[in-house]
Amino acid sequence: MQFFGGSEISPSPPQPTVSGNNAHMLYVFNRNGVCLLYREWNRPLKTLNPQQDHKLMFGLLFSLKSLTAKMDPTSADKGNLGVPQLPGQGCSFHSFRTNTYKLSFMESPSGIKIILVTHPRTGDLRESLKYIYNLYVEYVVKNPLYSPGAPIKCELFNSTLDQYVRGLG
């Protein structure tokens, strides 16, 4: 069963927003902040070791989620800044853009966090992140050889993901 509609992977993934391979990096974290998957396509400069990079990215997500929940103008119950929110609670963000990259984010109800870093001109990637999550469910979660919480080593998932992300705008 898929979380984002349908009972199988959509035969037609969302259309790219701009032509060319603009994807830089993809992270998949579980609810505990463990990086299950890290892929990179266009990252010319590596400044940190992978463990530091993963910790910084998860910390950034934690801080942004906390900040957006605290600044929510529609909710009177703000909670304490820094206290973790459950998936679906409070105000959430989908992306932010700098002059050199755009970070798009999606969190599933089970706490899986998918982060895709792309070129700053890339459009809205919410549907693409849902499609990637559906790939994750089909090829990883439903795989009887996969142990939840372990790094993702499924070749079929990785090759399908690479093919899809390389076609994204």
TrEMBL record:
Signal peptide segment: none
Transport keyword on record: yes
SUPFAM superfamilies (UniProt xref): SNARE-like (SSF64356)
Primary location group: endoplasmic reticulum
GO-annotated cellular components: endoplasmic reticulum; Golgi apparatus; TRAPP complex
Keywords in alphabetical order: Endoplasmic reticulum, ER-Golgi transport, Golgi apparatus, Transport
Nucleotide-binding found in the keyword field: no
One Pfam family recorded for the sequence: Sybindin
Stretches that traverse the bilayer: none
Gene Ontology BP terms: endoplasmic reticulum to Golgi vesicle-mediated transport
Superkingdom of origin: Eukaryota
Subcellular location: Endoplasmic reticulum; Golgi apparatus, cis-Golgi network
Assembly and binders: Part of the multisubunit transport protein particle (TRAPP) complex.
Similarity section: Belongs to the TRAPP small subunits family. BET5 subfamily.
Protein name, entry field: Trafficking protein particle complex subunit
Native source organism of the sequence: Nicotiana sylvestris
